[in-house]
Amino acid sequence: MYPSDVQYTRDHEWIRVTGSTAEVGITDYAQKALGDVVYVDLPEVGRVVAAGQAFGTIESVKAVSELFAPMSGTVTEVNAALAEHPEAVNAHPHDTWLIRIAVSDLAEAAGLLDSAQYEALVKE
Question: Which of 71, 60, 4 is nearest to 30 (CA)?
C-alpha cells in the first residue's frame, strides 16, 4: 500500500530523494486522519529546513496540523497548484508533493523508515 520508492517519518511525511534533491509530502495514513484538506501553508523558496522541524501547516475540515521536514535542506520549490487545489493531497497523497528541497545531509536518510517499517508503524 505504501510506495517503496520513498522513505517515511513517524510524523507521517514521506520523502522521495533523487540524487541530492527531494520531494516531500504526506502519507495516505495522514490524509485519512486529517479528512478533507482545505488549505496548505508552505514555506518560501530559499528557506532552510531542519530534519524534524516544522516547515508549514496543513488545514483540513477537522484540524490544523504542522508539517515536519524529513531531512534537512533548502526549499527549492513549493507546489503552487495546492493553493488552488489542496484536495489533491487527499486524492493522490503519494504523488502530490508539497515542497522540493536540496538535501544538505544525505546521511539523515538512515533515520527514516522504509515502506514495510512504516506500514508496521501505522498498524500499531
Answer: 60
pLDDT of residue 1 exceeding 80, the answer is no
Strands 48-49 and 54-60: unpaired
Residue 124 has pLDDT above 80, yes or no: no
Cell of 87: 484536495
pLDDT tier at 112 (50, 70, 90 boundaries)?
A: very high
* pTM, two decimal places: 0.95
Report the amino acid identity of residue 105.
D
The C-alpha cell at 29 is: 495514513
What the chain holds in terms of domains, given with CATH numbers, is 7-119 (2.40.50.100)
Residue 2 DSSP one-character state: -
Say how far apart CA 7 and CA 24 lie, in whole Å. Answer: 10
pLDDT value of position 48: 98
Buried b (16+ CB within 10 A) or exposed e, 65-78: bebbbbbbbebeeb
Taking the C-alpha atoms of residue 32 and residue 87, their distance in angstroms, rounded to an integer, is 12
